[in-house]
Amino acid sequence: MNLNSTALSSYFCKLFTLSQFAQKLSLQPPQSLLKFMDTIVIATNHQTEILPTFANAGKCLFTFGDILDRSIERLLDLKQNNVLCLGFSLIREGYKRACITGSNRVQIKAPNTTVMYLKTRIWKDVHALLGDEFMVHILQNVSMFVAIENDCFVQLCGLPLQDENESKCTTPDLCGPVGEKERKKVTNKRRRQNSEPSIQQASKKRKLNENFHKATIQNKNPPNHRKTPKTPKTATTSIKNTTNKTGPQDPESTFLKRSKMFYSKSLLQKFSSSHILNKSEPTNKGIYNLLNSIFKFANKPLKIERLPKHLFHTKNLFKTLLTNFKKLKLRRLLNFYCPLPKWIIGQHLRAKRSRRKVDYQQTARAFTPVRQVYLWTRKVLSNVIPPLLWGSERNKKTLLKAVLLFLTRRRYERLTLRSVMKGIKTSHFTCFEQSLQSHPKTAQYSLKKERLVQMFIQWIFSELLVPLLKACFYITETGTHRNKVFYYRKPVWSVLRRIGMKPLLGTLFRTVSRNTVNEMLASKRCIGVHDIRFIPSQKKVRAIANLTKGHVVTPSNVNAIAPPATLKRKKPSTINNELRPLHLSLCYESFFKSSLLGVGVTRPDQIFEKWLEFVNNCKSQYKCIPKLYAISLDIKRCFDTLPQDRILKLISEILKEDSYVIKKFVKIKNSQNGCVTKKFVSLATDGFDCTNFVSFIREQIKCGRLVGQNVVFVDKVFYRCETRDSMLSLVTKHIKCSIGNASDRYLLQNTGIAQGSILATTLNNIHYGDIETKYLVSTYQTLESFFIRWVDDYFFVTTSLQLARKFLNDMNRNMPNYGANLNLDKLSVNFKISGQPSSSERCQGDWFTWCGYLFNLQTMECCYNYMQYIGESIKDGMTFQYGSHRGLSMAKQLVLAVTVKASPLIVDENFNSISNAHKNIYQVFRYAALKFLALAQALRQDQGLNIMFCFRTIKKLPLKFHKRLQQNYQKHRSKHPGSKAGHSISLQKIKGLCYQAFVDKLRRHQTGYKRLIGLLVFELKLLKEHLVDIDLTDIRERSQYFKMIKL
Fold first, then answer.
1. Which residues of 987-1008 are buried (b: 16+ CB within 10 A; e: fewer)?
2. For the whole model, what pTM was predicted?
3. Can you say whether the dihedral through the CA atoms of 536, 538, 539, 545 is positive or negative?
4. pLDDT digits (tens, 9 = 90+) for 201-233
5. Do residues 328 and 468 touch, judged by C-beta distance below 8 A?
6. Where are the beta strands (DSSP E) in 624-768?
7. Homologous superfamily of the 871-1043 domain (CATH)
8. Of 10, 404, 484, 638, which sees the most CB atoms within 10 A?
9. Domain-by-domain residue ranges, the chain?
10. How far apart are CA 686 and CA 657, in angstroms?
């Protein structure tokens, strides 16, 4: 057991096994106990002594159960947060209904199964060996973990690891696994202390700039002046009031509120009447309210509204700003810079009288280009904001460039205040200098002025620009271009939504009145009302339900043990949160009974297992590979056509237990970029499951529900219990009475389930799995056929042409009986139908495409389908981080892009040739090189590019790919012992293919990457002997289409 490579080494400096602890005490445990003690890890930091001296060491005067109870009581008295104390509390005076433990002062609020594990027989033997005092010391003063399968750990006592701070050690000690790191830290610290004074002064100045938000802005009295008396409860003359917690604390971590401009609910082109600029008049009170909304100098309403001295000189400027806004002709400027198409003018007003049919695709293309939106916002901001508030022409140009950057960002990208402030000269803002003229021009003076400028610029973007855009445009992404943002004029969007809603009303939705909705909520017939947004796709508008944010939710019948006040949820519950226990319970039942899903697959490794089985069956029955016939089918609108009554009947049949327990715990591990990640995980089990937490985690790892290596698990103790009847009642409300709010109307869903529900994919798999189990599996899942489904995409491969035609006819004829229709536009076959060439024959040579994969029907080889990215920009599917740690974010995205594609399906030699496996690995890294260029360009524009950091990141990629590939093979062999799956590609070859892929891509972009190319070429020379048998010329020729993928 290597403790250095675990997540524990990031938190603790001293790591020992319990057997090593016993050896330090000169104790010899028996052989039967030694193996168990090797799995127990004791962890502590330098502040805690690991081996204190005790007078009665090794003596046992009490039972281990008594010691455990007294330790819990002691920790509760000291109010220490410890894993042992979770679920226990001291008895309140006069509280009669308390479940008492071994101590008369402690009551049980929730069963702590970790304490149950510590009360087993083997721990009594450990206690008999170590004695009372050492066991008390271990339970109360250090952290203890037990090692389980896959080098994982479960915490038994100590401060919960999710509450620990990383790298807590500060003194040099050689006792722990990180002693070498500590020595280096201390050495570097001593070198800095012995450095020149000028370097120390520079570091102090840099530290002052970094911690500017901690400086308090105070109006200190100048020398030889009397102190002014305090004024009673008014806006004081101190500048300290403007720097409260509501202002921007750190421009690096302060994000602009960009997400609020998306999906406007109102289709009126009108600025909000509740906005501060509309509510305020150019009077003293209006100016006071405006300045207070910008600089936050008065958190509470005051009896005497008085401007602070430092803002008094800006009064006339903001009065001019208010006057300019009142005179602004917003609609006229909008029509001039962002004109509506001529064919759409009046369509949204006289929709009933208009005889002209408006084409959907033409309307979907009638968005406003970003350049026109920028010109309009530039004109509006120039007309509203007075010249002196820009500071200078240079500052104005810099801020307008930031506005363009703000408009062109993708859906989930965020901008920090620092990126907007880059290039802004605070010395040019002379309007704030007059307010601070009494202050000496020191570093603190500059920080005060910079703080005021930051608050004003943040207000421009978050409170002026965002409401302007939301008032005049409907801003959304599309299904075709993924994260790319489109700006639709509201009249255009009104027409587009009307065209898209027309086929949905009456079939999928029906309108209901507000009174009906209120009656359903009052009678608890529905869970709540969710928002519906529409996303334009290639041929239709998709209705997406937002069930993940705060909604009005009726109380559900939840039998849960009430957690302590510190753990109570503060945010209102959402519909998806209410449905989560049912989702986890269905996943629990379907995991242990795979026939519920039919031929459905949910993970890429399942595709590999079934394809490998099919290949082995073909090889055992035929001397050579037979001719294969393939069919790819897609179910049309699968979520919208699910039969509701049938779904409810299936759920009642699947949920066989009377109750289910939702166990919540923390999963801590080292992430791909070297940091420690913490994730809350919930799993459902039988309501009568009484196993302790350690045994529960072991069982879940063994059966495959929990996956991971070097992971630490910490129990949360407070579990949620759901009865079968309450969950059936809840899902009936969700399916039968799903009400959505689409801006100006309420829609009740007639069929199917809302897209966006946490249950949608699971119920879809269960519904089609039941159909497949009853009617399809017995006929089509044979030794000579390959039959799988991914959500709504079927893939059928067989050696019999007659069976392939029968499958196609049966699916086309029988699927409508179950409420489903085939999407003939996406039908793909590689043979003729009814003796004539089919228009659906879409086989590209020998390769057949399905769900992002390519299957060779002649050689049975597999690869990823990168040709689907041709004609699209790869940036549209990415999200760039503009906050702190941009480089680490880039490294994380690259590692994720590589590890996700580390599947045995593309390298296994049972059906892939060596040359095809080499090509697949090369293409994985060539795709990663495309992403690297896109991320590097954004990083270069923002803060510059560190070539050595990029080189180290690229060197990590083949290591991560090889490690994930080995892990996937290890999981497969654990499930299928005796399997001959495997590959013979070494790590050195993977490194060579990775470096070659990056060099081939970067040579097309020589500017700025010459040094990086040189470093990679040097690494290739070192690996030359390992790449002799790789035909790079053939690989490059088969990867020519990568040149057609846009950045």
1. eebbbbbbbbbbbbbbeeeeee
2. 0.86
3. negative
4. 444 434 434 443 333 333 334 333 333 333 333
5. no
6. 629-636, 659-670, 676-686, 711-715, 720-723, 739-742, 745-749
7. Telomerase reverse transcriptase (TERT), thumb domain (1.10.357.90)
8. 638
9. 3-157, 253-350+358-435+445-492, 871-1043
10. 7
